[in-house]
């Protein structure tokens, strides 16, 4: 299982939310940073961007039994 920060490190080389958003070209307002709602919304947007990018790249290979 990956969390969003680990996945961002794998995909973008960044584990800090603001830096990962910058690499993913997701707007990030530093004045709103560290607000629980704002950070949660940006984290969700980042996660969706990463999942969509993985899908575009062909996804993960299936797990073998």
Topology of this protein?
Elements: H1 4-12, H2 17-23, H3 36-56
Helix pairs in contact: 1-3
Provide an overview of this structure.
With 65 residues, the chain is mostly helical. The chain has one domain (4-57). It is built from three helices and no strands. It has helices spanning 4-12, 17-23, 36-56. Helix 1 packs across helix 3 (36-56). The two termini are 17 Å apart.
Q: Can you tell me the overall shape?
A: elongated
Mean of pLDDT? 91
- Count of discrete alpha- or pi-helical segments spanning 4 or more residues: 3
Strand content: under 5%
Main β-sheet: number of strands, strand sense, barrel status? none
Q: Supply the helix-strand structural class.
A: mainly alpha
Tally of structural domains? 1
Order of helices and strands: HHH
Radius of gyration: 13 Å
Key phrases:
65 residues; mainly alpha; 3 helices; 0% strand; EC 3.1.13.-
Describe what is shown at a glance:
The protein has one domain.
């Amino acid at each position: 299982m990956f969390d969003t920060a680990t996945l961002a490190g794998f995909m973008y080389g960044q584990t800090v939310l603001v830096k990962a958003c910058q690499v993913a070209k997701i707007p990030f307002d530093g004045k709103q940073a560290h607000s629980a709602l704002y950070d949660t919304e940006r984290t969700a947007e980042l996660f969706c961007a990463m999942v969509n990018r993985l899908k575009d790249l062909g996804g993960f290979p299936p797990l073998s039994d």
